[in-house]
Amino acid sequence: MSTQILWYASRATGAVSLVLFSAVMVLGILTAGRKGSSFLPRAAVLRLHRSLTITSMAFLAIHIVTAISDGYVSLSFLDAILPFRSAWEPMWIGLGTVAVDLMLAVGITSALRRRLSPSAWKAVHLSSYAMWPIAVLHGFGTSGGDGTSPWMIILDIVCIAGVLGALAVRLRPDRHPDSVARQAATTAHPRESIGAGR
Questions:
Q1: What is the C-alpha to C-alpha distance for residues 154 and 160, in angstroms, rounded to an integer?
Q2: What is the sign of the dihedral through the CA atoms of 54, 98, 2 and 8?
Q3: In the structure, what pLDDT confidence band is assigned to residue 5 with cuts at 50, 70 and 90?
Q4: What are the alphabetically sorted keywords of the record (predicted)?
Q5: Structural domain count, the chain
Q6: Which of 10, 24, 38, 191 places its Cα 20 to 30 Å from the Cα of 65?
Q7: Exposure string over 59-84, b if 16+ CB within 10 A, otherwise e
Q8: What angle is formed at CA 158 by the lines to CA 37 and CA 21, rounded to 5 degrees?
Q9: How many CA atoms lie within 13 A of 165 on its CB side?
């Protein structure tokens, strides 16, 4: 495979990874700790979240392998695991490595979720909120890619707007898990809720 094809593959899979991970973030933010709806049951939400995550990781793996293989810059597989040791753009490549390490931690603990305490799993899973913006910065700052090209900036803006919009919806007082639980209890047992309020 030619160096040019590998280079374009690395750029394309990096952009696709950003879109997919942004979709994973939006879905996770909007559905965390909540039941499904009649349109999309809870089990379907979890399957969709898991499938999007696995697909994102596959594209990310291709992004890393093609970036290392194309030979345009000197990168090794250790550079993809150990942060800030790359000879080429150590800051921006290092941010990408940190994002990969956080993603691996989330993925591994999710696979082992039944063997972990809920608090330990949740603590690691919350690192997704750090992983995603770090990955965005990696893509924006790496000069060998399309980080500052107009189409990539537009893609960044759309992904950032999507995640921030999901956070805004999630942080609304009526969307707080306690409020949702109270509303569900009122709907399920309206008389008990009236009696409890007296």
A1: 10
A2: positive
A3: confident
A4: Membrane, Transmembrane, Transmembrane helix
A5: 1
A6: 24
A7: bbebbbbbbbebeebebeeebbeebe
A8: 60
A9: 10
**DSSP code of residue 164:** H
Torsion on CA atoms 19, 20, 26, 27, rounded to nearest 10? 160
Can you give the length of the chain in residues? 198
Residue 51, both tokens? 């499938």
Answer whether 62's CB lies under 8 Å from 9's CB. Answer: yes
Place of tokens 């800030």: 84
First to last CA, the chain: 74
The domain in which residue 31 lies consists of 3-197
Residue with the two structure tokens 């409890």: 196
Q: How far apart are CA 153 and CA 146, in angstroms?
A: 9
Q: Which two tokens stand for residue 129?
A: 């909120």
Q: Does the predicted model carry a pTM greater than 0.85?
A: no
